[in-house]
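Example 9 (inverse folding). The structure is encoded as follows.
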């Protein structure tokens, strides 16, 4: 199985921590030149120092706040002067704040669409020409299992994640002829800072301890544990590889079996 990403350039968004960081580390291990993209340059440089390098790899770090699509676009334009083409794009950014959809302000939806759908789209548009020229492209969106089964108290997130999933399927249909695949990877409960915050918030609202809340969350997962960021990164890395050349337009849950529908 060909998992070699030597001479491939990968842009990994939200790569300063959590799943994005784990994905960047795995892609570098497979030989890719990795560009980290998030809002904290100091943290990104720390991550960059941890990336594998076989002596011929070149890694980069660029900085912008994903709540500002204009800043994201400008930062990427500057980076394309340094690395003119990318073959791998991992769209990933932090999720919207929890809460029911029925009480969410309209501005929360607009902000989430900008942070997720609009950024994903404009970044992809800038990189697709290089993918076409290379005859190789992988666009991978880190979204949520909510695209298969909406999650309680994540109304804004459920809405925007569904929009991203539909966008990705449409893009997959349009770009397949150019050997560009577009897929979504759906994390379940994964040991990250975001999961810690969600559990802490739930525990506080329900008046139980964090340990009790963790136990309850694990009880609904068939594997009875939370996932690790590295396990999620492995799935993304496979979809980025040459061996995933005929997989496109899918939404792959990596959730220990938590999603109860097919």
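The amino acid assigned to each position is listed next.
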């Amino acid at each position: 199985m060909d998992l070699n990403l030597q001479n491939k350039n990968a842009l990994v968004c939200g790569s300063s921590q959590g799943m994005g960081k784990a994905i960047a580390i795995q892609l570098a291990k497979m030989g890719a030149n990795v560009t980290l993209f998030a809002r904290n340059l100091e943290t990104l440089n720390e991550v960059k120092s941890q990336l594998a390098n076989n002596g011929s790899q070149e890694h980069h770090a660029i900085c912008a706040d994903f709540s500002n699509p204009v800043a994201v676009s400008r930062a990427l334009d500057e980076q394309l002067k340094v690395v003119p083409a990318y073959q791998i794009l991992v769209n990933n950014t932090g999720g919207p704040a929890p809460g029911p959809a029925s009480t969410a302000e309209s501005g929360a939806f607009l902000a989430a669409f900008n942070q997720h759908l609009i950024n994903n789209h404009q970044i992809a548009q800038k990189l697709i020409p290089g993918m076409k020229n290379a005859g190789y492209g992988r666009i991978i969106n880190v979204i949520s299992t909510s695209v298969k089964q909406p999650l309680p108290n994540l109304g804004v997130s459920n809405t925007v994640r569904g929009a991203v999933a539909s966008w990705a399927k449409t893009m997959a249909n349009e770009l397949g002829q150019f050997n560009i695949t577009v897929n979504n990877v759906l994390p379940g409960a994964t040991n990250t800072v975001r999961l810690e915050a969600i559990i802490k918030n739930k525990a506080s609202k329900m008046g139980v301890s964090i340990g009790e809340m963790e136990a309850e969350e694990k009880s609904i997962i068939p594997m009875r544990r939370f996932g690790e960021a590295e396990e999620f990164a492995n799935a993304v890395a496979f979809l980025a590889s040459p061996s995933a050349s005929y997989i496109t337009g899918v939404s792959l849950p990596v959730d220990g079996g938590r999603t109860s529908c097919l």
